[in-house]
Amino acid sequence: MNYRGSYRHLLKNAQAAMMAAIEIYNKPRIEYRDECFIILLLNAWELCLKAVISKNGKSIYYPKKRKEPYRTFSLKDSLNRAEGFYPDSFQQLPVRKNLELLVTYRDNAVHFYNKKGFGLLIYALAQTSIINFKDLLEAMFGISLRDQISWNLMPLGVSPPIDPIDYISSRGVASEDRSPAIKQFITELSLATKEVEDADQDTGRLLTIFRVNLQSTKKIQTSDVVAGLYASQSTTGPLLLERTVDPNISHPLRRKDILEAVGQLHGRPLTSYVFQAIAWKLDLKNKKHLCWQDSRGALIKYSREVPVVLGRLIAEQVEEAVRDYRAFLAERRRNGR
Predict the structure, then answer these.
(1) Domain boundaries along the sequence of the chain
(2) Predicted local distance difference test score (pLDDT) of residue 281
């Protein structure tokens, strides 16, 4: 008996399972969609991890017990054994945490049921998991999953999308959609994020937000980050995929963090008022590489570049910002705004 199995057959089935998962998810109407999608996605991962183990000459079976059939490794044990073969550039911890969260959802689906409202978080976690899967295939086997997927999809719906960051931070979601099970799942996600951050590894391998938009080509020049394919040779209507990085990574600083980091500017303490004046003068809130706001503007965060920008200001620029901001506020009060 071949205790290693055929890594080529395992790899072929892994890719087939992933394609099936993606096809299931993209069906416009199907009951039990998220659950079927995650079951197939994790099956693809298990097969791929076993292919990694097999390719490196190791067995994919548990020790044989008398009068019991041969058993191949579970997903958890496949993950434990395959991690030793990853290339150095492929970070293990965030990939593991991503899969563990998806396994929690799958186990509920298989053995019980999941509460309504998980869909948004599952999509964000699963999309990241697909990217991780793609990168592992390329790194370990030189296979490009992109060659097997057509991106010419038309994602339309009658419900507006919910910002996952708003969802996680308890904004923009009806209270009835936030069951104790979902809150517990979000807590697990937060703990996983902290563990990855503490290990100084990429949280983008754990959870990344993706949005899909239809745009006129005339507006492409004003977009932030765009990757996609034209749907036709016409000048309008391409499908654009906008990859939005988790703002906790790209914009980790709150205003108080900036005040503490800078301290003083040319002998003047950097108070909240002075910072507000400079932010107004430089129009920081409208510069997306420097400032991120949630959809309601209630949460504002800044990139690590902002303290650097402030440090480059000369004394005259700081004074001018405070003076002009004071005049702006006075004018607004006079006009009753």
Answers:
(1) 7-207, 210-246, 251-334
(2) 93
